Amino acid sequence: MKVRFGPRKVAQMMESEMSTSVFTEPATLGRTGLKVGRLGVGASYGIDAAPLERAFHEHGVNYFYWGSIRRRGMRDAIRSIAKTDRDKLVVVLQSYDRTGALMRPFHERGLRALGIDRADVLLLGWHNSYPSRRVIDAALALKDAGLARFIAISGHERPLYARYAEEAKRDPSASPFDILMFRYNAAHRGAESEIFPHLDDSPARPGVTCYTATRWGQLLDPKRMPPGERPMTSAECYRFVLSNPKVDLCMTGPKNAEQLDAALEALAAGPLDEDEMARIRCIGAHVHG
Ligand SMILES: NC(=O)c1ccc[n+]([C@@H]2O[C@H](COP(=O)([O-])OP(=O)(O)OC[C@H]3O[C@@H](n4cnc5c(N)ncnc54)[C@H](OP(=O)(O)O)[C@@H]3O)[C@@H](O)[C@H]2O)c1
Fold first, then answer.
1. I need a labelling partner for 206 at 20 to 30 A (CA). Which of 123, 134, 139, 191 fits?
2. Is 128 exposed, middle or buried (0-12, 13-18, 19+ CB in 10 A)?
3. Does the Cβ of 185 fall within 6 Å of ligand 1?
4. Is pTM, for the whole model, over 0.85?
């Protein structure tokens, strides 16, 4: 049977094929100068190597966070991509070390497993108070040894991020943190008043990456919506985060190719418009409440 499409359908199809938006362009990750696709992928939820490699080659997804759990799928994708395109990959390795002594051996073990000489980002994970001198010195030593190019920090205490941002503004060379990673989503919007105003637009400011865009999947859950409201799509969750001009990159945690494809729709769709933003802010307030 021959299928005929009208001109409007054909136009729609062509548009979706060629879809680009400001989110399909790479961002500069603050003072690191690294060029990154706007979605970063975390390994923890178990995504396989093949969809990761496709996302790298076809969508410019290049921020590969091999943590919080170091899974095989992402390891294999990094090993494969690094053979030809190491300079385009941004590999993030995490350390939860609080002693300073365990950071280097764990980091080196990660590099060996990935078959690379250095990580692009060493992420100091889950710091809810200012990291100790021991931890900062161990991280700087890895940088000096050429085993990591930049240092990122993650945690939940928003006032600390205001402090990191202000420190970096006062004296970038004295501030160890090149990238700030914190929670921001439609339900958790505290960063809008507590962190973003402390970040200026200068090239010396730290890069900004955000996590829990879906609020552990809750923003996608029909049972948690206001009455009569359809749930957010995962792409809407990532678009909400990336619509904030202070955010360079949003993390996504797909467990399979379908979830990654759904996330990638955020890139072609671009920033939320006013009506979408208003709807999503209502949903976020309801879910938070
Ligand atoms: N260092 C830190 O401080 C820190 C903090 C938070 C997160 N992380 C890491 O950052 C990475 C990203 O985590 P995240 O929490 O920001 O990721 P996320 O993408 O906001 O959340 C992943 C969750 O969203 C659900 N999901 C995603 N796509 C979906 C889709 N298309 N349809 C339905 N459900 C979907 C998954 O649910 P199901 O699993 O039920 O399918 C999963 O529970 C991970 O590697 C994580 O370990 C690090």
1. 134
2. exposed
3. no
4. yes
